């Protein structure tokens, strides 16, 4: 089973947003290279491109690679060995 099959679809239960009618939803293009085993094998778009982007961000350690700004990546390595209660607070932030 790949990641696309394991994600549940969210139902809209009549929820309303607080933005009102003053805003327009814009879908940005997501076409990118499809990477498998650290090699570019083709192009991908839409849902699979988003899954790949999220996976990459979760696998990239923050502040290590100069190519990425301070908003990209994760701080998981900083939490290794810490007390579980401390980790819960840090993750919530």
Cα distance, first to last residue?
Answer: 32 Å
Task: Tell me the number of helical segments per DSSP (H or I, 4 or more residues long).
Answer: 3
Report the β-strand fraction as a percent range. 5-15%
Radius of gyration from the CA trace? Answer: 18 Å
Major sheet attributes: 2 strands, antiparallel
- Give the structural class: alpha+beta
Helix percentage: 25-40%
Topology as a string of helices (H) and strands (E): HEEHH
Number of E-state strands = 2
**What's the arrangement of strands in the largest beta sheet?**
1-2
Total tally of structural domains: 1
Mean pLDDT: 82
Described by the principal axes of the CA atoms, the overall outline is extended
Spans of at least 5 consecutive residues with low confidence? none
Annotation keywords:
93 residues; alpha+beta; two-stranded antiparallel ribbon; 29% helix; 12% strand; extended
Question: What is the secondary structure topology, with strand pairs?
Answer:
Layout: H1 3-6, E1 32-36, E2 39-44, H2 46-59, H3 84-92
Antiparallel strand pairs: 1-2
